[in-house]
Amino acid sequence: SSPSRFLSSSKPPSPASNLRSGVMTGPMGVQPPKLVFRQLFEKESSTYTYLLADVAHPDKPALLIDPVDRTVDRDLSLVKDLGLKLIYAMNTHVHADHITGTGLIKDMVPGVKSVISKASHSKADLLIEAGDKICLGSLFLEVRATPGHTLGCVTYVTGDGLDQPYPRMAFTGDTLLIRGCGRTDFQGGSSSQLYQSVHSQIFTLPKDTLVYPAHDYKGFTVSTVGEEMLYNPRLTKDEETFKSIMENLNLPYPKMIDVAVPANMVCGLQDRAAKA
Amino acid sequence: SSPSRFLSSSKPPSPASNLRSGVMTGPMGVQPPKLVFRQLFEKESSTYTYLLADVAHPDKPALLIDPVDRTVDRDLSLVKDLGLKLIYAMNTHVHADHITGTGLIKDMVPGVKSVISKASHSKADLLIEAGDKICLGSLFLEVRATPGHTLGCVTYVTGDGLDQPYPRMAFTGDTLLIRGCGRTDFQGGSSSQLYQSVHSQIFTLPKDTLVYPAHDYKGFTVSTVGEEMLYNPRLTKDEETFKSIMENLNLPYPKMIDVAVPANMVCGLQDRAAKA
Ligand SMILES: [Fe+2]
Ligand SMILES: [Fe+2]
User: Fold this and answer.
1) Which of A43, A56, B11, B125 has the fewest Cβ atoms surrounding its Cβ within 10 A?
2) By C-alpha distance, which of B115, B113, B185, B116 is closest to B149?
3) Is residue A183 in a domain?
């Protein structure tokens, strides 16, 4: 993996993480209360936004994953109520179904940095790659490249280590949905790549890892890696069957894609980018 | 408090619970992984259904709080995937905005018992009252009477004790919503009673107790007692101001009330009750 360019260097799993697996994974799991975590729902696009903060750190640093333009006020009001200092506004990928809130958030909260993958070919303050770590006080997220739904999709996974949240949490974007996955017919999508991404980058995580997707259309809020390995109707199939399923979905043309994709490549601030 | 009539007796807070508060409430909180917990959303009525199970118990007993008729198939399919044995289908109160799924669930899963408060004057297998405990393997829920939105509203709270989930979780129905509360102008509602219920039965819980309401209309999924004590725009007011707020809401007549209330008083199986 490439050396990390921001904030912290990536390293192989530490002995401490093995110790934790051995010692703590019994009748008692340890959840450091330093993590404040909130899942937030945007109804029109059925999008989940996630708020994470390290409240044990004096600054109470916080980040938002996949904020939506329409719900920025709600999200920032919660950040304020909880006394958090927002430092990152991140996307898992360039969304085609809604406008990201990252640009608005940058306008409204000075100092916030927008984050997206370098592979998305978008503008943002931090362009992250596989192996990077995003630090939040003493917590961190690992970046895993999970292309397939789009070329630049990433999955953010909470750290491995005794002092990190247990079970781990994977923010999978549209790569892995609960009992489903994102479409692969636009934005440099590839069913073969999505299949490889899920199997190599997500299904290799501990089975109790919590799966938090960017969307759910049936009212599910969370799943686990183990559950999706057993019950995902698409990704439990072999690769050829999976590719044939994805080729025969016959989905309509994404309604907002022509507006949302260009906007989201500049943090949702399309007009300003056009003027600049 | 009245002696418990089902499954277990209620008792005052045990020394173990004080010990836990002293010992565990520091940098590390303990979350027994024996609890499997899922929050589920029904979009049309913005209702949250909750699934709880004790997966450390050989039977993996499970219960559902506030299931909705339209999403019973989803809920039971999740119960099946997780290998759980559903034993209770519970309501926090007689809902006026959707039809409960408890009757359908009883039909589809033999042995499941429906649960509602005695004060709701409804039919169910278990009619619970303040002080009762509902056991789920080695986990349990306390019943707290929280009238005000309806005469029969209860709040179910996870147990106090070293072997119970930490932080505690309160399933508040429509008594306390995130930054709001249920209306008090129908079904034996009373703003004065709701105010007293929240202050005496919910705001007296530990501040880190998680608040899981029956509805949210803005996409919030959870709050805490401490957060609502500080930021609930209604319940932070004095009682007179609260009553005046509730009297001046000018809400429309509840759309489904004439269908839903009679149906929900017989677990959503109105036609069958009429024929019987
Ligand atoms: Fe997407
Ligand atoms: Fe209600």
Assistant:
1) B11
2) B185
3) yes
Q: Give CA–CA dist B155/B203, Å, rounded.
A: 12
CA distances from A209 to A171, A225, B164 (A): 10, 6, 22
Please classify residue B15 by burial: count the beta carbons closer than 10 Å to its beta carbon, then call 0-12 exposed, 13-18 middle and 19+ buried.
Answer: exposed
Which uninterrupted H or E stretch holds A261?
Answer: helix A257-264
- A147 or B9: whose pLDDT is higher? A147
Preceding omega of A12 cis (within 30 degrees of 0): no
Contacts of B220 in chain A (CB under 8 A): 38, 40, 74, 78
Residue of chain A with shortest Cα separation from B74: A218
Q: Domain with A233 in it: what CATH number? A: 3.60.15.10
pLDDT surpasses 80 at B273: no
B180 in any annotated domain: yes
In this structure, is residue A8 part of a structural domain? no
Number of structural domains (chain A) is 1
Confidence of residue A33 (pLDDT cuts 50, 70, 90): confident
Residues of chain A positioned with their CB less than 8 A from the CB of B221: 38-41, 221
Residue-level pLDDT at B19: 29
CA of A119 to the centre of ligand 1 (A): 15
Q: Provide the residue range defining the domain that includes B233.
A: 30-252
Whether B18 maps to a domain, the answer reads no
Taking the centre of ligand 1 as the mean of its atom positions, its distance from the CA of residue A122, in whole angstroms, is 14
Strand partners, B215: B47
ipTM metric: 0.86
